[in-house]
Each structure stands twice: as structure tokens, then as C-alpha cells.
Design a protein that fits this description.
The protein is α+β, with helices and mostly antiparallel strands and about 325 residues long. Among the domains are: about 110 residues, conserved putative lor/sdh protein from methanococcus maripaludis s2 fold (Beta Barrel), CATH 2.40.420.20; about 80 residues. Helices cover about 35% and strands about 30% of the residues. The strands form 2 sheets. Strands 1, 2, 3, 10, 11, 12 and 15 form a 7-stranded mixed sheet that branches. It has a 6-stranded antiparallel beta barrel with strand order 4-5-8-7-6-9. A hairpin with a 2-residue loop joins strand 10 and strand 11.
Length: about 325
């Protein structure tokens, strides 16, 4: 049964809202009250040895401001159809125009052709020009000024790449984005997670989805990445905007602990002292994520064994005069 686009995109948007929960980071199923203050925990030396933690310093980088979007790999058939018709009419218009000019020269040189033949050639050239103009307007209305503005050679090249699978076109709808936003590049990822792909921004779409009321852009993916994408496939999209960059921290996937869908990372404050901090994930980056958070360059992140720290954090404090447990009295005040 065919699914209407008006139903499909809201479903895709709902899936996109759960992006962080789909990641392959360590997942912890636990009841987490609303966060107020995250108090550091202190482990005993004995407990620390059993956790086999691995740490590494955090590294920051500069990234462009970006907006999230939901993407869909487009069926290239409408593009191929309109461009094939336009290419045919362009060739016909060029031939009929040349024939009208030839007859005009003959007629002007001494009536070496009939006026009737000249008028018929000029009429045919005019009809072909109007037909070419009509198809070009349709192309612009359906695909926007950027794609319609490609030269005939570039349009033909794109069509050929779409046919052989070396390129795919993606529509990215960005709910909540400004219509004045100017994306310059994009990062894509399947909804199931995994490998990310780079995409070129071709230009804004000429329409918006009524259910989303959000601006959208056409993207182009080339090369090996295009071979792995399929028509109709839903994608997460991060649109990088023009303008000043800001700082973000690189977080390895293995360092992230998810508690009720919220991402956290543990920072080592001292040899036996750790603090859990919240993260705002921005976009995938190599084997991890770029995130904005209170983490600074040089902070020591727990990149292996972080989920064990969560369970240690939930252990009750050691009672006065009791045996030493996993923690020494700090607990979590959130």
C-alpha cells in the first residue's frame, strides 16, 4: 500500500527526535530523577581496580553552527523525465531556429526561397522556443532555481550519474529552521545509525511539506556513499551553516552513557574521583560525536567502563562504621 507523504514525514520526524537513543553508545536502563546537581563520586582503590576503567583527555575542535533535519532519498525518475523532455526540446528548438535563420538569409539574398516556407520555419521555431520555455519553467517550479540553473551539460551529467547510481538526491526538511538559513554542507546518517556521509547542498526546495511547515533543501551525495543509499530511505541530516564557528568537544562513542535516552559522560577529577556530566550531542564525528557541554580540552574522560561508574554511583553510601563499599559517601544529588 502506498504511504502518503503527509503521513510519512511526520513519522520520520518522530524517529529523528529519538536520534540520541539510536546510537550504539553504552545504554543503561534505570530510573533517573530530574537533574539538579551532579555530585562527584569517590571510589575506593579496591573498587577502582575491579572496574578496569580507561581514560583519555578530551579534545576540542571548531565546528560550524548547524541545524538538524530529516532527510529522504528521492526517486530520480521525475528529474530524469523532465530533463529528457527538455533536452529533446532544446535540440529541436536549436535546429528549427537554425533552419529559420537559413531560410531568412536565402530569402533576403534574392528570394531564393518562398515567403511561405520562411514564415512556416519561423512559426515552427517560435513554437519550439515556447515549448522549451514551458519545460524550463516546469523544471524550475518543481526543482528550484539552483537545479534549474545548471547548464544543459551539467544537467545531463547529473542525470547520467543518477542512472548509474554514482549520485543520489536527498531532500532535507529542517523543522524549526529559519527560511533565511544558508546551509553550505551537510552530514547524513541512516536512522539505524552507523556510517556517516558528506553531502553537497544544491539549494532550497521550491516548496515545503504542509505537515511540517519547515524549510527544506536539496542535497547531493556522490561516490561510494551514493551506492549504499536507496530511494525512499530516511536519514538523519545535520546542515552546516555559513558563518562563525564555535567550539565543540570530541566524545568517543564508548564514553557515552545513556540514561533514559539522555547522554552523559564521566570526567575523572582525581585518581579515585569522578563526575557525571550531561552532553548535548551535535553531530557524528568519526567513531564518536561532537558535543557541546561544560567539558574543556584536557578534561580526562572515561572512555571504557563508564556504565560501571553509573552503577557504582547508585550504590548507597557506606554507613558509619560499616564495611567499605564501592563508594565513599558522596553519592548523587540529582
Amino acid at each position: 500500500m502506498k504511504i502518503r507523504r503527509s503521513w510519512l514525514l511526520p513519522l520520520m520526524l518522530s524517529a529523528a527526535m529519538a536520534w540520541p537513543a539510536i546510537s550504539n553508545a553504552q545504554s543503561v536502563v534505570a530510573s533517573e530523577p530530574p537533574q539538579v546537581t551532579l555530585t562527584p563520586i569517590t571510589l575506593t582503590q579496591a573498587a577502582l581496580k575491579t572496574l578496569h576503567l580507561r581514560t583519555q583527555p578530551a579534545v576540542t575542535t571548531s565546528v560550524a553552527k548547524q541545524i538538524p533535519a530529516i532527510g529522504r532519498v528521492l526517486n530520480p525518475a521525475p528529474w530524469l523525465s523532465i530533463n529528457a523532455k527538455l533536452a529533446t526540446v532544446e535540440a529541436t528548438a536549436a535546429a528549427s531556429g537554425a533552419e529559420a535563420q537559413r531560410l531568412h538569409r536565402l530569402y533576403s539574398a534574392g528570394h531564393n526561397t518562398s515567403l511561405k516556407a520562411l514564415q512556416a520555419a519561423e512559426a515552427q521555431a517560435s513554437v519550439d522556443r515556447l515549448r522549451r520555455h514551458e519545460l524550463f519553467q516546469t523544471l524550475r517550479l518543481d526543482w528550484g532555481a539552483a537545479l534549474a540553473g545548471l547548464t544543459p551539460v551539467k544537467r545531463a551529467g547529473l542525470s547520467q550519474q543518477l542512472v548509474v547510481g554514482d549520485s543520489v538526491l536527498v531532500r532535507a526538511d529542517a523543522a524549526g529552521a529559519s527560511t533565511n538559513a544558508t546551509p553550505v554542507s551537510a552530514t547524513l546518517q541512516p536512522l539505524s545509525g552507523g556510517q556517516t556521509y558528506s553531502a553537497d547542498v544544491l539549494g532550497p526546495t521550491p516548496d515545503i511539506e504542509p505537515a511540517l511547515q519547515a524549510p527544506a533543501w536539496f542535497l547531493r551525495v556522490d561516490g561510494n556513499a551514493a551506492q549504499t543509499l536507496r530511494r525512499g530511505q530516511a536519514l538523519r541530516v545535520w546542515l552546516q551553516l555559513a558563518g562563525p564557528q564555535h567550539s565543540a568537544v570530541k566524545i568517543p562513542e564508548s564514553a557515552i552513557v545513556r540514561i533514559k535516552g539522555k547522554p552523559y559522560v564521566y570526567v575523572q577529577l582525581a585518581p579515585t574521583r569522578f563526575q557525571r556530566r550531561t552532553l548535548k550531542l551535535l553531530s557524528p564525528y568519526n567513531a564518536g560525536w561532537l558535543a557541546s557541554s561544560p567539558i574543556k580540552s584536557g578534561d580526562v574522560l572515561v572512555v571504557e567502563g563508564a556504565s560501571a561508574l553509573w552503577w557504582a554511583e547508585q550504590a548507597p553510601p557506606t554507613p558509619p562504621g560499616g564495611h567499605a563499599g564501592a563508594m565513599k559517601g558522596d553519592g548523587d544529588d540529582d
